Amino acid sequence: MDMHSPTEILQTVRKDQVLLVRLNNPKARNALSEEMIELITSVLEETAQSKDIRAVILAASGPAFCAGHDLKGLTSHRQDDDQGHNYFSYLLTLCSDMMQRIVELPQPVIAAVEGIASAAGCQLVASCDLAVASHSSRFCTPGVNIGVFCSTPMVALSRNLSRKHAMEMLTLGEMFSAEDAHRFGLINRVVPDGQAEAEALNLAQIIADKSHVALKIGKKAFYEQLEKPQREAYRYVVEVMAENMMHQHAEEGINAFIEKRSPCWDK
pTM here? Predict the structure, then answer.
């Protein structure tokens, strides 16, 4: 994939085995419009089939990472015969499916946050496997301030943060600092302003050097076991790990460790 025209609202560029996906609609604060959601979904679908991409970075242009849903676009549908209910359900489902595709993508996904991640933008960060944010980045789920509880962002937040921290964000609707987000468990690292994408790329390149087979197996198993009771989770991952041990990558990796050399993964 090559970098698209800078006039397009979503850009992609390959950096060796890493795919950088950049939201590029700064005038709209990179809002998750219907078009933006469809474009991200399309890129994720294509990436899931790639044998060459080992990691994905989600970044953004401009002062905001993502301001959430396009509220003006949503409000325009209040003129529909059903006052917008069907469209609201359609768009929220479309967005939720896109978030779930990030979780189900075989490759790890890293958010590189500069600026504000609000509402569904915060959900986007929480849906990624890892997240790096600049020092001046801010995070919020402010729906409660305008009479709309951030119920869809709540799904991703409640699966990444402790219950108390998730409810703090959801019920206060306040802006939280990058340090708070790190303390809450929403992001992995805080870096100087302007360095989030570079740090995300550093992490992605480290990941790209690992066994893509092990990462694919492990990412899927991680999210599967989270939803199971502990005893059932252990039964599940025992089978997953036993099957993983049978793969060529496991044999090569273990032999390389014993022989004190770097493993050579197949393509």
Answer: 0.94
Which CATH number, 3.30.70.1130, 3.90.1150.10, 1.10.260.40, 1.10.12.10, labels domain 212-258?
Answer: 1.10.12.10
Q: Domain 10-208, CATH 3.90.226.10 — does that match? A: yes
Question: What is the Cα 156 distance to its own chain's centre?
Answer: 10
Per-residue pLDDT for the chain (267 aa), expressed as one digit of tens each?
A: 444 444 599 999 999 999 999 999 999 999 999 999 999 999 999 999 999 999 999 999 999 999 999 888 888 888 888 888 999 999 999 999 999 999 999 999 999 999 999 999 999 999 999 999 999 999 999 999 999 999 999 999 999 999 999 999 999 999 999 999 999 999 999 999 999 999 999 999 999 999 999 999 999 999 999 999 999 999 999 999 999 999 999 899 999 999 999 999 874
| Beta-strand relationship, 18-23 and 10-15 | antiparallel
Q: H/E element holding 92?
A: helix 85-104
From CA 197, how far away is CA 194, in angstroms rounded?
7
